[in-house]
Write a structure and sequence with these properties.
By secondary structure, the protein is an alpha/beta fold. It contains seven helices and six strands; from the N terminus they run αβααβαβαβββαα. Helix content is 40%, strand content 20%. A four-stranded mixed sheet has the order 3-6-5-4. A two-stranded parallel sheet has the order 1-2.
Length: 154
């Protein structure tokens, strides 16, 4: 999730409350190229990567942070399917993967486009400001239907 939109923050919280592993990345570490995924992230069935915005936004750093987040997401172990929110983050992640084309498969909800890469990976792209609180959950469930049937974590 490469956007600071309040709606996206609420969507992450909703997904994390249902058991997703949320990895908040330090912007300074991303900018310096020292950010790393914790080992636990690699084994989680559903992981959300986002940039820690608690220190405030620095618009001039947005492009560099998106590129660093995209590179980290592209290097995620196991070549998982991806949900990319925020246009610049989507572009930099696809560039880091070397993906030059997507085959559209359908729309999960307004603005959430489900596509496939030439190597078979599923990718959902969506503007950062789109969707209701359950948007990320709906997208994840579309990619992994068993998630829709899973009981909520307490």
């Amino acid at each position: 999730v490469g956007t600071a939109e309040p709606a996206a923050v609420a969507q992450i919280a909703h997904l994390a409350a249902l058991g997703a592993h949320h990895v908040t990345l330090d912007p300074a570490g991303l900018a310096a190229g020292t950010a790393r995924l914790p080992r636990t992230a690699a084994v989680s069935a559903l992981t959300v990567l986002s940039i820690d915005g608690s220190a405030g936004l620095r618009p001039c750093a947005g492009r560099a942070l998106s590129a660093a987040l995209g590179a980290l997401a592209a290097a995620y172990p196991g070549g998982p399917d991806l949900v990319l929110t925020g246009g610049e983050t989507a572009r930099t992640t696809l560039d880091a993967l070397g993906t030059r084309e997507l085959e559209p498969l359908g729309e999960i909800h307004h603005g959430a486009v489900h596509s496939r890469t030439p190597d078979g990976r599923h990718v959902v792209t969506r503007p950062g400001s789109y969707g209701t609180e359950d948007s990320l959950l709906r997208i994840a469930a579309a990619l992994r239907p068993r998630l829709a049937a899973a009981p909520a974590a307490t």
